[in-house]
Every structure is written in structure tokens, then in C-alpha cells.
Amino acid sequence: MKDSRGPLKRVIAHVDMNAFFASVEQKHNPHLKGKPVLVCGNPDGRSVVATASYEARAYGVKTGMSLWEAKRLCPNAVLVQCDPEKYVYTSMKLLSIYKIFTPKVEAFSVDEAFLDLTGTQRLFGSPEEIARKIKKRIKKELGLLCSIGIGSNKLLAKLASDLKKPDGLVCLSDEEVPQIFEKLSVSSLCGIGPKLSSYLNKLGIHTCGDLKRYPKEVLEKKFGKVGLYLSNMGKGIGDDEVLFYYQSEPIKSVGHSQTLNEDAYSFDVIEKLIFQLSEQVGERLRHYGYKGRTVCLTLRYSDFSTFSKQKTLKRFIWDGRDIYKEAMKIFGVLYNGFYGIRLAGVSVSNLVKESFQLSLFEKERKKEKLLKTIDRINQRYGDFTITWARLLEKSKGGNVIPPSWRPTKNLVSVN
Amino acid sequence: MSNLSESFLELDERIGAGVVFGPKVKIKPLWFWWRGRKYQVKKITYTWKTKKGRATLYHFAVIDENDNLFELCYNSESLVWKILSSA
What we know:
- Chain A is built from 15 helices and 14 strands.
- Chain A is an alpha+beta fold.
- In chain A, strand 7 and strand 8 form a beta hairpin.
- In chain A, helix 11 packs across helix 12.
- Chain B is mainly β.
- Chain B contains no helices and 6 strands.
- The chains are: A alpha+beta, B mainly beta.
- Chains A and B meet through helix 1, strand 6, helix 4 and helix 15 of A and strand 3 and strand 4 of B.
């Protein structure tokens, strides 16, 4: 963006919903207001805390903590089972609120979004005013609280939103960055997880100030391209490109995984789960119009060790049964036969957009026709309305929203 | 609805409902009949939509006069109202 006075300074806002799932449940059920609430995948199974309300956090409960540990810390907590569809709907409502202020709205996860407010000031006021308007609207329409951070790029906006919770509004100017970053732990920056943070600590990098001063060339040598990115992060320089709400990153792979309620030792149970996951992957591939030729199987054993193996085929596939056949071949190599299976995941990558070219062979044409008919019936009456007899009793795992969740185009509009 | 309190009951039963279909608030349940009793909706605490195939399911978390919480659901295809939980 440019005007006669030169390029406009970027203004990025990061909206982070406070204890999102728990807040939605407290709004849904007013009896839960003011109580410690734990939203979890499956309260009867080996679930973890998906979100804890602020009342529960006061007891030391954190997201990702195992349920038994959370209950030990907070015995009075009310357990609420995760309701992904409710949260996704609410998330779409939030996106529709953001879209009033800017078309550049990028969902970062189900409860976080980046907004590019560059150039919107003449319409809606200063960035702080816009943030206040967004907060007011969210509270009025959905009864939820959020924290908003404003900065000149995504890194700073995200950091600013983390600085005050709940119900915060923090603007981080570029002038403040050197002073704040000097003593800020590197683990506070989005993208630096516990592993990378620990590695950086070993290099003597503890704060963003340390990161800024560390020789860029050495970082580049150790981390490749990421090293340059890290060096910039230490200076508060980050990505400032916010996608339009109708844009999305190209799909690189399609996968499904499921944690079982109890470890599976039976070959039948594991095989059926892999079949179900393969069918789900196949259905989604066809829905997006993609075929893929790399099948990956992931197994997590009862001791939490996790293994993945993939196989690249000569042909492109999108039929769940073909994916299943390949996944089972991998299973034969991967499964150690000693431990129970806690989680299985199937994914297909190496994707190409389906050209819908008719096959030369009648058998293949019939197969495609059958799949299309099944898909049409399921699209009309709901998933798994018609399926293979073996999948009539679907395996049930915890209800979760994957971190990779992004709104699909047909979900963007919510009335 | 998924509150796992002791009184929580997961249900899937057809109900009769008195509803306003209006221009401002699109669908607003006012009361419902369930198991031979009429429940007056005091407050709608939360609404959301889901899809089942082509059908849109409108979900309503409602509180009756005795502060009991229910989840009601309206299927836009079958035009059927259901109660999905009570707590």
C-alpha cells in the first residue's frame, strides 16, 4: 500500500479469545459461570485438558495437562466434553465480526486470528479504537472476552496479545521493541517452542536480546533458513502478510488421526480404525478434488513412543480402500507387536488436483461412479450414512479440533 | 450440550415446540412439550448451527422457569424439533 507520502506503516492486530472453549461453555450454561471448568476430549478416557477456565487456571491447571493431574489440582472442577462444532460455529461468527473492519482476516487457529488494519483508520478510527470496537462487539453478540495485541507485524501483534490476559488490549510500538525484547525470554515468541527454546538456551541465547546479538551467520549455519528468521525475530522483525479471509494456503496433505479410549491390542480393532481413517481421508480428498500418491501411517504406542512411515506410489489415489490397502502394508512393517496402540493416523500427501479424466478401464470407471454416488448420498444425508459394512460401528475417540484447523470457503459465511 | 454434572442427561427425543420464526431473531423457541409437560423458555443462553448432510441443525441452549438447562435442536429439512440434553 502506498500513497503520496510513501508506504503506509503496517498495522496488524492479533485477536486471542480468552479460555475460548471454557468461556463458550460458561455462556452456554450459566450455572458454570464463576466455576472452574475443564473442557476435555473424552472425560471417561485418557483425555487432556483442551481449555481450562480462568477459575481452574487459578489452581494451576494448564492446557494440555492430563485430566487426572488437573483433577488432582482442582478437585471441584466441572468437566465438560469438547463440542467442536459449537466452537467452530462461534469461531466463524467471530471471523464475520472481524470482516466488518477489514477484509484481511487470517484465522490462525479456531480461537485466534490476525487482522490487517493498515489503511482502515479513516473508516473506523485508530487501531486502538478499532480493537475496542471489536472487543465490544464480541462481548455484546457472543458474551465472550478476548485479548487484542497490535503491532507492525504478526510476531509483535501476537506477543502484544499475550502480554495482558484476560480482556487485554496492548499496542506495541516499534520504538518499545528493543527495550521489551532485551529481557524477554525467547520462549515468549510465537514459533519458538520448548525444544527450540532449550536448544537456543544451550547456545547461550536466553532472551530476545541475546538472540538479536547472536551472529546471524552462525544461526544460519545451524538452522539454515530458519536461522535467518530467528535472527530477525530477535529484532522484532516478522511476517506482516495477512491473507484475505477467502484465501487459504494450498493443501499439502490430508490426514486424520484418532486417539482410542483405551489401548488397542486386537488386530481387528486396529485394522478397523485404519480402515475408518483411510475412508475419512479418501472422502476429504474427493471433497477437495485432490488425489495423492504418498500414504503415511502414524502409530503411537501405549508407552507414548510414536512412529511414522510413508510410502510413495506410482499412481495417484483417492479411494479410501486403496489408501487402506497401502496403510496396512505400512502397518505390517511398522507395528512392533508388543505394545498396545494408543493413536493411529493416516494421511495422504504429494497431491495433485484431480483432472477428472475418464479412465480407460471399465472397472475403474465403475469404481469412480460408485464413490461419487456414495459421496453424494453422504453429502445429502450426513457423513457415514452409507458406508462399508465393516464401518457400521465407527470407532469413537475424543472430540478435538486439530491445531491445523482453518475455515473452509463454504464456512466463511455465517448468518 | 455436554456438561458432565450428575443431573446431565443425553437425549434424542422429538418434542413439540412453540416457536417464533421472525425477521429479526430468525428462530426463537418460546416453550416446548416434553414427556407430557410444558416447559416455558425463560432464556436462550447460546445458539449455534451444525450441518448434517444437506440439513442445517439449529441448536438452542435454553433455560426454563426452574433454571433447568436444555439443548433443543431444529432440523431445517425434516422440520422436526428434538431435545438433545437436559441438566
